[in-house]
Amino acid sequence: MQSFIHTRLSESITAKEDFVNQSRDRILELAEKITTTFTNGNKLLIFGNGGSAADAQHLAAEFVNRFIIDRAPLPAIALTTDSSILTAIGNDFSYQQVFEKQVQALGKPGDLALGITTSGTSGNVVTALATAREMGLVTAALTGGTSIPKNGVVQYCDLLLNVPSDTTARIQEVHLWIEHLVCEIVERNMFSEN
Hints:
Number of helices: 6
């Protein structure tokens, strides 16, 4: 088991290193886009399924409450948390629209829609990003995979951060690391005196 633990640790570190080697500038670009969104009085809408839904809630909590710096709350909303909305849309229309309808209700030009999908092809995330783009929101996504599907979120993203791994657990670990790093950069951009 000692070897197993070390192997998984090594895989996680390698996934982060591979992502940074390919996409370092995109981390900074996402942080800059979110900073601009907030400083212009707009909001961040975050959504995904399963573990990515948990990430959306986690990231929204870091922005609304605080991450490291004690500061004013920032307007971030996880579209994964209202069970009544999710089940009403899923029941009356389709699960494909559970994020799209919330983007339509809450989004406005200048807001940023951030979809999180390890595959890059989750139908409800793709649909929501397509609608967000049509409505004039800035669009971004966190994805994974060693090849990026052309029929997924990539076609609707102003900015794509793809983790070059085919292992869901490693992709999710990198996503959380990216989310924490971006949150810290945004806080430093907006509230640090240094």
